[in-house]
Specification:
The protein is of the alpha/beta class. The chain has 15 helices and 14 strands. It has a seven-stranded mixed sheet with strand order 2-10-9-6-5-3-4, with helices on both faces. Strands 11-12-14 form a three-stranded antiparallel sheet. The protein has a two-stranded parallel sheet with strand order 1-13. The chain binds ligand T4K. The site of ligand T4K has 23 residues, from α3 and α4.
Length: about 400
């Protein structure tokens, strides 16, 4: 692709798209293909496809070792893992969660008729604000679920203190945070339980997959039973359960990815640094920084667009990027509280969520991972530069004809 230097070069204004193929956020990291196919052949030969097979057991052990946690129960996806953990931990009534998260965090509660009470986030980290949590506790509150959004750890210490003080359960949605740490300890060790997602778009994927990790022996065995219909041995059911089992083929994918974990982090980090270098001087564009003293998987490139400075808003920028085949995403717009059923249940929730509302309008996620190279990153950043440098002109040219100022007849 030739570089774009003039506003006319933008695809939205008639230029040809910067990329001939779509550049997605969340392109899966795929490890060694031969090793994966070997494992798939193996499991086919064994004719053991699900129900706590050898690959699932090995995967659970590897995850528990990496995290340094006593128990890992692998599951079919992160949402079911959340639902099961919520039930096993004993959450009922109301649970305080951030609204700035993927809808699954809220739905996993509401699915079991537990009310998610939406709490605002800290604008610096995008994670739940512990000081706001304390103001939202009522006699019906039974727990708190923090979300380590973007792999950025919540303020675990403050949340633990609040949970202990008010005798509440504490869980973490760690869907984004496999391979990350908080104050030197791996995410997965905090609260009553933490939940990972191994969805295709995640840093480590098992096609679809998830896991609950915990250091609580009793809770772990309850979760294990619940994941398999409540069966405690043949013909004996102890709890209400569901089918949350991970399949062997998923575990094979997960195990294969685990062998390339260092490589995935290195690529993500390289991409992150490149974006940071290329974007740091663009006024009004801020890239989320991660705490250097902790481990991070750098799976998300998170930008905040300050329209007051860029003079072009996030949504317009997304439109411009999409025209170039750069499929930037607006995670987690508009916030759970503005989606159904919560929007109808709590129509005024936004009044208590100013930071969430603000972030929802500013956030933009860019493509990264092993499917994105430095050259592509440079082109993406160059387009953002071009747009911000010429924001007035771009805006004017994009004005719909019918909103042009009325001309004298
Ligand atoms: N908690 C949090 C905080 C989460 O973020 C999530 C999931 C969960 C809980 C629940 O975990 P899971 O039950 O999913 O294990 C995607 C993912 O589907 C979802 O897993 C993820 N969070 C969320 C942040 O992103 P969508 O609705 O954006 O998916 P979609 O189809 O638009 O795909 C995302 C991007 O990835 C697109 O650019 C296309 C690309 N993609 C996707 C798939 C599946 C690929 O390139 N290849 C693929 O195979 O939710």
């Amino acid at each position: 692709m030739a570089s774009k230097n003039r506003v006319e070069d933008l695809a939205i204004l008639g230029g040809s798209p910067a990329f001939s193929e779509k550049l997605h956020v969340g392109r899966p990291n795929i490890g060694d293909r031969d090793r994966l196919l070997e494992r798939i052949n193996d499991l086919l030969d064994r004719r053991w496809l699900s129900n706590n097979g050898p690959y699932v057991q090995e995967f659970e052990k590897r995850i528990a070792d990496i995290v340094g946690v006593k128990h890992c129960i692998a599951m079919c996806n992160g949402t079911v893992a959340l639902e099961i953990a919520i039930r096993a931990v004993g959450l009922t009534g109301e649970v305080i969660v951030p609204s700035f998260t993927f809808i699954a965090t809220a739905h996993a509660l509401q699915w079991q008729e537990i009310t998610p009470v939406f709490c605002d986030v800290d604008p610096r980290t995008h994670t739940i604000n512990p000081w706001r949590v304390e103001t939202m506790i009522t006699p019906r509150t039974t727990g708190i679920i923090g979300v380590h959004v973007w792999g950025q750890p919540c303020n675990v210490e403050a949340l633990t203190e609040i949970a202990n003080k008010h005798n509440l359960k504490l869980m973490f949605d760690a869907a984004h945070a496999f391979g990350c740490s908080y104050k030197g300890r791996m995410i997965g060790n905090f609260g009553n339980a933490e939940v990972f997602s191994f969805h295709a778009t995640k840093f480590l994927n098992a096609f679809e997959g998830g896991a609950v990790v915990t250091n609580d022996d009793e809770l772990a065995s309850k979760i294990r039973l619940m994941t398999n219909f409540g069966f405690a041995g043949y013909d004996n059911v102890n709890y209400i359960g569901t089918n949350g089992k991970m399949t062997e083929v998923s575990a094979a994918m997960g195990l294969t990815g685990l062998e390339s974990l260092d490589e995935f982090v290195a690529i993500n980090y390289r991409n992150y640094k490149q974006y940071q270098r290329e974007l740091e001087n663009i006024p009004g564009i801020k890239i989320l920084t991660y705490n250097k003293t902790d481990k991070c998987n750098y799976q998300y490139i998170v930008l905040e667009i300050d329209e007051a400075i860029t003079q072009i808003n996030r949504d317009k920028l997304v439109e411009i990027l999409w025209a170039e085949n750069i499929l930037a995403r607006r995670y987690f717009y508009p916030g759970c509280h503005r989606m159904e059923p919560y929007r109808s249940y709590f129509p005024h929730a936004g009044l208590l969520l100013p930071e969430t509302e603000n972030l929802g309008k500013r956030i933009l996620i860019l493509p990264t991972g092993s499917a994105v190279g430095l050259e592509e990153i440079n082109k993406i950043c160059q387009i953002i530069w071009l747009v911000v440098q010429h924001s007035y002109e771009v805006k004017e040219r994009l004005l719909p004809k019918d909103s042009e100022p009325l001309k004298a007849q």
